[in-house]
Amino acid sequence: MTTPISFHNSATGRKEVFVPLREDRITMYVCGPTVYNYVHIGNARPYVAFDVLTRLLRTRYPAVIYARNVTDVDDKINRRAMENQEPIQALADRYTKTFEDDMDALWVLPPTVSPRVTSHTPEIIELIETLIRKGHAYAAEGHVLFAVTTDPHYGHLSKRSLDDILAGARVDIAPYKRDPKDFVLWKPSTPELPGWDSPWGRGRPGWHIECSAMSYTHLGAQIDIHGGGTDLIFPHHENESAQTRCAFDTPHLARYWLHNGMLTLGAEKMSKSLGNIETIVSLRGRYPAEQLRYALLQGQYRSTLAWSPELLVQAKAALDRLYQALRDTPGNETSRDFASSIVWPDAVIDALADDLNTPEALSALHGIASAMHRSEDMDERRELRQKLLAGGYLLGILGNPAEQWFRGLATEDGLSDAQIEALVEARREARKQKDFARGDTIRKQLANSGIELEDTRDGTRWKRGGS
Ligand code: AMP
Ligand code: ZN
């Protein structure tokens, strides 16, 4: 019996068994980055979590269509380009590329489609026209606004009443709004800003309408899963939901809304506006990207996760244990060879099927590693090695050869891999010629640079010490 997949659905506030709209085609949309800066490790949390989710879903369903957009039209992008005196599109392209590099490094698989706002303005304009035609939106002074009171279900996702929303401090009062709760679908652009011709003059879309249009274009009027951080529930997802439901007369935009908890640094949410961030680019210079990914997976996606040096130390120790098990039962495969495994470890699947419980799934991997350690039967160990790698694939770890993991990251002031290899080889030759004093000197020289050696029957292994 296969374990059913269940998720906590923010729309109902309950954990529910996942029943897709269609068995042959699962659809999922996750709000992507606004590309005006390097992204921080908190931003990676949803992308890693929903990456694990797609890996899980692909073990059960023949097609999982995953769309994750790139917001390349935004006031923050315009401001930043102005400060840098750089063309807006050049800046957006540059940060789209760094984002993609970060995701590759973290082994977040590319989504099926990565739609950009700049390639979807006709669809956005069409959607706004539909909303106007159906009486859910109106044009005023070059703007188009969504009329919140025309949607009887507005507030269902964030569990807010219209009164709560009105009382919320962040509602802009503007003269062109019929109701202060109405939000912008389209706004006018000045000549130096990006703009597109529209029935309401030259302008650009608001943030929320972009996601509704791109999700509709690539996935349809109703989708299975919509994801993002809890910070997006209101107003972004509430507004996306209102736009899509009202335009297409559907009961839901997404049947399941999944929201990840926040990564904190210090006492607060890691966020660009507070300035308490660690960019992935800078972390990658100090830690192997796999260690960063493991650190994120140590928290179940809905919980708040405190980013700290200890979290990274634990991740390193845990990966050392798993890679040691792989090293002790040698083989050429890494978890990357298991993308289309047909035998997945039950304990890992069960943990992930239970609202993506990644800490439980990781401990299942450690259980396999311990069994490898205990077993003296080489065939059994090889079988367990395969299981460990298949489970590693689901979590997006163990994708490197064990030796590479133990070598760690070359630091700018440290020895390069080639220099270390050369010294290890020089030591081997010295020892072969019985010049043990020289062999010892080389070992000490390596130790002084933080390189630890281990002599085994198959030769000398080395690893970089430290975190
Ligand atoms: P943003 O670029 O701020 O729109 O964020 C992109 C994605 O990262 C969204 O899904 C956010 O919910 C998510 N996010 C932003 N900050 C954090 C954080 N500190 N922890 C977890 N997720 C975050
Ligand atoms: Zn969105």
Characterization of the model:
- The protein is an alpha/beta fold and 467 residues long.
- β14 and β15 form a beta hairpin.
- The protein has a four-stranded parallel β-sheet, with helices on both faces.
- It folds into three domains: 247 residues, HUPs (Rossmann fold), CATH 3.40.50; 100 residues, Anticodon-binding domain of a subclass of class I aminoacyl-tRNA synthetases (Four Helix Bundle (Hemerythrin (Met), subunit A), Up-down Bundle), CATH 1.20.120.640; 55 residues, no CATH class.
- The structure holds adenosine monophosphate and zinc ion.
- The site of adenosine monophosphate (AMP) has 17 residues, from α1 and β9.
Explain briefly what this protein structure is:
This protein is an alpha/beta fold and 467 residues long. The chain has helices at residues 41-58, 75-84, 88-105, 121-133, 162-167, 207-219, 233-248, 280-286, 289-297, 309-328, 346-353, 358-374, 378-395, 402-407, 417-432, 436-448, and strands spanning 6-9, 14-17, 26-30, 64-68, 137-140, 143-146, 183-188, 203-205, 223-229, 254-260, 263-265, 268-269, 305-306, 451-456, 459-464.
User: Which range does the strand content fall in?
Assistant: 5-15%
Structure ligands = adenosine monophosphate, zinc ion
Number of DSSP helices?
16
Q: What would the principal axes of the Cα set say about the shape?
A: elongated
What is the straight-line distance between the termini?
A: 42 Å
Number of domains: 3
CATH level 1 class label of the largest domain: Alpha Beta
User: In this structure, how is the largest beta sheet organized?
Assistant: 4 strands, parallel
Helix content: 40-55%
Mean pLDDT: 94
Number of strands: 15
The radius of gyration is 26 Å
Query: What structural category do the secondary elements indicate?
Result: alpha/beta
Any idea of the CATH topology of the largest domain?
Answer: Rossmann fold
Give the neighbour order of strands across the main sheet: 4-3-9-10
